[in-house]
Write a structure and sequence with these properties.
Blueprint lengths: L1 H23 L6 E3 L20 E4 L3 H14 L7 E4 L15 E4 L9 E3 L5 E5 L4 H9 L3 E3 L10 H5 L8 H4 L6 E7 L5 E5 L4 H7 L8 E11 L3 E9 L2 H13 L6 E8 L4 H5 L8 H4 L8 E11 L11
The chain binds flavin-adenine dinucleotide (FAD).
InterPro entries: Cytok_DH_C_sf, Cytokinin_DH_FAD/cytokin-bd, FAD-bd_PCMH, FAD-bd_PCMH-like_sf, FAD-bd_PCMH_sub1, FAD-bd_PCMH_sub2, FAD-linked_Oxase-like_C, FAD-linked_Oxidoreductases_BP
GO molecular function, one term: cytokinin dehydrogenase activity
Family: Belongs to the oxygen-dependent FAD-linked oxidoreductase family.
Amino acid sequence: MPLILCCMAIKLSLCFSNLEASLRSLHIQGTFSFDGNEFAARDFGNQIHFLPSAVLHPKKVSDIATTIQHVWQMGSASGLTVAARGHGHSLQGQAQAPQGIVINMESLSGKEMIFDKGTFPFVDVSAGELWINILHECLKHGLAPKSWTDYLHLTVGGTLSNAGISGQAFRHGPQISNVHQLEVVTGKGEVVVCSEEQNADLFHGVLGGLGQFGIITKARIALESAPTAVKWIRVLYSDFSTFARDQELLISAENTFDYIEGLVIINKTGLVNYWRSSFNPQDPTQASRFTSDGKTLFCLELTKNFKPHEADTIDMV
Ligand SMILES: Cc1cc2nc3c(=O)[nH]c(=O)nc-3n(C[C@H](O)[C@H](O)[C@H](O)COP(=O)(O)OP(=O)(O)OC[C@H]3O[C@@H](n4cnc5c(N)ncnc54)[C@H](O)[C@@H]3O)c2cc1C
């Protein structure tokens, strides 16, 4: 048995050196790293750690296409897998490629974002861009994406491969319903533009496709006017039925909030004490109601956009 293991180890190391040599021979503008790739074996779950053989740091979309064409030509017998990695904030090794090739999409970020400020505004962005950067750039134009995630240090390609859900989804749908067009590198290494009208199967496969139907390299994101002011409210409930009834009422009402999200909280961590600062300090009765350590609470987080001249009436609204 040790002999077999030893042979396997020699065979694997020969494969790696062949792979390294063949990847080094590719004409690309970015780089491959073969050492120091531990970051590509980590994710937010921190449970699964598969080291890839190589990480591609692309400078151009053509670097990704060239690499995937090369893997395609090696054929399925190579057993080589390829995974795109955004910000690595998924779980269970989703963005990892055991002994394969990880594509570090963030090295494609920082490219110019191209705005169309017409009747239906949009922005064209690199899929390796973080949503937080897109927000900052959009605000310079008085615009903002319609649909968000709660946390914004995630890449466009990463959230579009899942769904991208937050408190705007009840109104606009998740992020994958607010994309007009994608540029995708397919499993054969072709660069294809797709939308509802053009290569629709690829478009719908890639959106929410967990990185299994191609590598998203660019996305056209739907925008709207950014609000100038926002009223933010948290409402705590101890009774689930009341919480759920209120949430259903609010998401189905016509004139309602702009953001509605429901949360379940186990009040073990002093979270509610911390949140108490968001209650009106002139209302001590309200602020002291939730001395509920260890209990399950339910929270509605709500926002309403308003214009500066509506500031006096927004509380009543
Ligand atoms: C603190 C935190 C808060 C979160 N909040 C929310 C939230 O409010 N709403 C929500 O919907 N989700 C939320 N998530 C989940 C998060 O949106 C997903 O895990 C998302 O995939 C992470 O994006 P990423 O850039 O880190 O992608 P990665 O983890 O790097 O990749 C995730 C998957 O997408 C694939 N992928 C990455 N880039 C591309 C690409 N360009 N083309 C094709 N496939 C690609 C990967 O191969 C992998 O399968 C949260 C996660 C964390 C850690």
